Every structure is written in C-alpha cells, then in structure tokens.
Amino acid sequence: MNNVRSLISILLLLIVLAGCKEEIPPEDVFESYIGYWQQGRYEQMYELISETAKDALSKEEFVNRYRSIYEGIEMSNLYVAAVPQDEEAAGDAPTVKTFPYRLVMDSAAGPIAVDGAMQIVKNKETNHEWKVEWKPSLLFPSMDEGDKVNVRTLKAERGVIYDRVGRELAANGSIEVVGIVPGELGQAGEETIAELAERLSVPISFIQEKLAAPWVKDDLFVPIVNVTGDRVKLDFSDLQGVTKRDKSARIYPYGEAAAHLTGYIRQVTAEDMEKHPEKRLAPADVIGKAGMEQIYDDRLRGRDGVHITIVNADGVVKETLAKVDPVDGEDIHVTIDALLQESMYRSLDGDAGTGAAIQPRTGEILALVSSPAYDPNLFIQGLSEEQWNSWNEDPNNPLLNRFTKLYAPGSVFKPITASIGLQLGVSSVDEIKTIGGLRWAKDESWGNYYVKRLRDVPEESLTDAIVNSDNIYLAQEAIEIGADNFIREAEKFGFGKPLPISYPFPQASLSNDGITNEILLADSSYGQGEVVMSPLHLALSYTPFINEGELITPVLELTDDEELREEPWGDPVLAPETAAAVNRMLLEVVENPTGTGHGAYIKDRRIAGKTGTAELKRSKEEKGQENGWFVVYDAERFELLMAVMIEDVQNRGGSAYVVRKTAPVLREYMESRN
Hints:
Layout: H1 2-19, H2 26-39, H3 42-47, H4 51-56, H5 59-72, E1 76-82, E2 96-107, E3 110-122, E4 130-132, E5 148-154, E6 161-162, E7 168-180, H6 189-200, H7 204-211, E8 222-227, E9 242-251, H8 259-262, E10 265-267, H9 270-275, E11 286-288, H10 291-295, H11 297-301, E12 305-311, E13 317-324, E14 332-333, H12 338-348, E15 353-358, E16 365-371, H13 377-381, H14 385-393, H15 414-424, E17 433-434, E18 439-440, E19 451-452, E20 459-460, H16 462-468, H17 471-481, H18 483-491, H19 518-525, H20 535-541, H21 576-591, E21 607-616, E22 625-634, E23 641-646, H22 655-673
Parallel strand pairs: 6-14
Antiparallel strand pairs: 1-2, 2-3, 3-4, 5-12, 6-7, 7-8, 7-9, 10-11, 12-13, 15-16, 15-23, 17-20, 18-19, 21-22, 22-23
Helix pairs in contact: 6-7, 12-22, 15-17, 15-21, 16-21, 17-19
C-alpha cells in the first residue's frame, strides 16, 4: 500500500514540474525552424508549428509538400536567414511575434530569392508555448491556400540540318497523333479500346500500357500512335474519347534516300541517361541515334528552358519565381547536295550497294548513299513491330549502313598501283609487256596459285593494261616494285589512317598483318588479297590524279569557324607529272570504245574513270559473290567524282552493270550544272 502511495506522489510531482517548465522564447523557435528548414529536416519543422496548423495538415502531408515542391523545381543550395530588424514589428500583439527572413535557393530555372515573414504565436490554451503559425506563404511568400508551384519545361527547338544550298535534310515539322482522353471514354471504354486496337493494328495491351503510365490523368490527352501511311485515311470520330491532335515532330524530307546519312532521333532510354550524365537528359528528351543526328547531337539539341511559377486553383499565374529561356539548337549546314543524293539512291533502284560523291577539287562530300535503306520518318511517327521485323528479316539488310563499311576495291585500285610504279620509275606509260594467255604465275614457288585476266592481249602498255583492266600486268608491276616500296607508297593514299572527318568511318587497310609474300603482293596490286576501303576513301584516293598529286581532305560541314574545319590529311602523294599520266589513262578507260568504262562516255565532254569487280571467294576455282565498282569523274570542270559499288553483279554484266546504273546520274548532274 505504501509503495502505491509513493508512486502516485512521484507522478504528481512530475506533472507539476512539467507544468512549470521554462518558456522557450519566440526568437529561439524562429531560429530552430529556419535551421531545420535549411537542413531539410521537415519532420522537426512540423513539430514547431501551431496546433491549428497541425489540425489542417498532417505531418506526412507537410513533409511531402515540401519535398515534392523542392524536388519538382530541382532545389539545391537552400539558404534561409533572419533579416535583422531594429525594433519589434508594428502591430504585433503580446501573443504574436513577426520575424522577417530571406529565402535563397538554386533551381532548375536558376536562382530564386524571396523575402518572407514568419509569425510565431503563443498557444492560446497554455499561454506559454510559442509555435510557428504555418501558412502556404511559408513555402513561398505569395502562396495562398489552393495555390501550386508549377514547373514547365520550355522546349528548345532542335537545329535543322541543311544541305549545301539550304534544302532541309532533317527538319522540324508536325504530324497528327491519335490518342485517348481517359475521362471521356465512358462506360464502353473497354470496347472502345478494343476497336481502336483493331483499326490501328496494334495489340490491346499496347494501348493499355499507354493508359497505365504514371502521369496519365482523366482529363489529359494520352497519345497512342502517330497517324501516318495508311492510318491517315482512318476515321475515329465514332469512338468516344478518341481524338486526333497535331504534334511537333522531326521530319526527313528525303526519306530513304538519305536515311543512313541523316540518321534519326529517338526518345532517350535509361541507358542513354546513364551513359551520358553530362548531357543532363530527361525521360522526355530525344537524342540522335544514328548518322548526322547522332554526330551533331550536342549542337543540334540545344538547351531546354524552365519556367517556375505560382498558380492559383484556376491555373492562373500569380508570380514567376524563376525562368530560364530555352536556347534553340544550332543549325548545321553540310556539303551534301540533296538532289544528287536522291539521284544516286534512285539509280540503285533497290540493289544492295553504296556510293560516295565528292567535289574533287575541294574534298566537299556531295553524297553518301546506302541501298536499300529504311524510312527514318517511321522512327518518329511510330514504328510498328511488323515493320521492324520486315527490315531485320530482309536479306538485303536495309538497316546496314554500307557507306561506312570496308570492301575489297578490286580493279578500281589499279590506278594506285600504276601511279606507284610511275612515281618510283619502275614503269612508264608506254612500257610494253609481253604476256601470253589468261593465266600467269611468277614461278613454281607459287604452286597451284595464278593470276588471271579476262582479255588475252599479247602485248600491252601500262595504259592498255588500265583500259583493259589487266590483272596480270599490274601484278607483274607490283612484284617489280617490291612489297616494302609498295606498302610505303600506297600508305600515302591514307591507308591505316582515320579519315579526318567527324562522321565515323573505319580505316582502310592494305593487309591484315603486312604483305609477307609475293602472292599477296600480286593480289593486292589489283585490289584483291586483303585490301579493303570504304567508298568515300576510294573516291578520295582518286583526287591526286586531278590535283597535281595532292590527296584532298574530305569536308562534310560548311562553316567559317576555323575550329570546325578539318585538318589537312597529308602531303602530296604524287609528282604532278605522275598524276597527269594516270589521269590520261583514266580518260582512255571511258573515251576508248574498248575501255571498260565506255558506257559513261558523253559526247563533247571529258569523262574519266575506272571499273572493277571484286571477287569474294575462298579459292580460284570457287564461284563466289562479285561486287561491281565504278569510279568516274568529270575531267573537264572537275565538279564531280563518284565511287559506286553494287553487290552481286555476277550474271548481271559485272562492273558494266554498275556503269549503266551510274552513267545517267553523271549526265543528269552535269546537265544541271550547265
């Protein structure tokens, strides 16, 4: 019994002592509150607000409100400080104290700095506890109940890619998009979704996934697919809640003709954001995924702006807290001639092949073509699974960018070998070789290996050998030159070096591990063996023949900015007289009625070139794929040089098939320049 009485006495004493605790001054409450605020300790802030405020706002709501607003505006470097005041605020009652403060922070839209005032009130019931009279104005001073902080992204316009005369290769346009406003679907929502899926030829689950996105609300338009192709004719007016709207989009006016050159853009992925943290990519951003869209992405993309405002319940802006205007992406002007690009692509007519065209005096790239190709607009407009599968299953592989691949050049390499022999004095233009039959081997050390040719010409000069495309003549010349000399001189044409250009090309190569025997040297002399080149590199390798021996540097971008100009590729590779001699041989290839390139002859114009066929097989006796080549240029005004390759030309006339495809492009271009 005595123990119970003692316990009751202790409890009564504690209650009395608690009721007599020392009053905490309002100044200390204010200092504690702004201290917690600056540290982001919102739970502790809540404990300091008045009971009236707590009745209106739970701790969870209070904490989430601060966190969601600050995360939404990307707040950092928060600083809250008391503003000194000389005397007690006018109008303060004995139970109310007002403390001015300065709130400063960084945000997605730049710095925010506002002045506010905090009221500290005495608890009416106990009349000794000072608490913060919390109101929405303690988030931002101009906020009232019902107001919200709105963060709006001001999208930067992506830069346009123009060709050499201002034609748009990649531009900003608009398309129609069909979508759903969920709140307008009505009771027949499931039936509407099923019918829409059938009309669009997409799974019902595809639409349901779109509607299940976290951001979706009943009154928001949810885009489903872009209206293109056959979908343009579809009518959705009978489907409740389904509507069409215009949407800004990237468009590619030349479609397939320039697909691999321009590339395309896609919405960023988590992998993109992780791989490129320096770009500060957001989930709704787009990024260049191939071609020039990818190469110039940092310059094309620009920088989005942000507008942070306080809006009332009706959505009316009350105050701008911070704003950063968008900076549109940079327009890129390239050397490409869109009409020539389209003409070259059209001439291939679906054949698997590639081509490069340059201005041989300046190195300006006029066209880079890969056929067949895909339509880059479909990536923006909504790529169906059927279309993606169709591209991937196509044996001609339209997704493959052929102009960035390496190929055996075959006989179009012969002018390089001929120029090396002339440059070193090993041969001369009129030197006659006596060759018997269609096959030749140096001696018994070659075993069963031999070099073969198509025409049995007993006596030939070097010019004849180029005109007739004689493998044996060039092989004998290479053997006489020797491997070390051949490699040294051939490398001057850019082998083993990257093309000095922003567009990524693999390096051309003479061999895998060096030319270690005469058989490989012989094969290399006529562009077989292990010699591989891209069509652009091949086109550039002909520029010394018309530029007094100088290998011209490729140029893709038109700019006056010295920092963006390409560096020179190298020193002159041939003496002017050697270059002129090879040029005369290449004129004979086209102008001589027996020349393999005579199909490109144009009366009263001077056209030069070289044909070639590269055989892809493991042995001499094997029948394998043949790729046909034709390098051709205007040898009068020197305005155009093209290197074109078509795959599988066996049984279609070999390189003559390529000449027939290419000659009309040359004529069309030259006529347009008259």
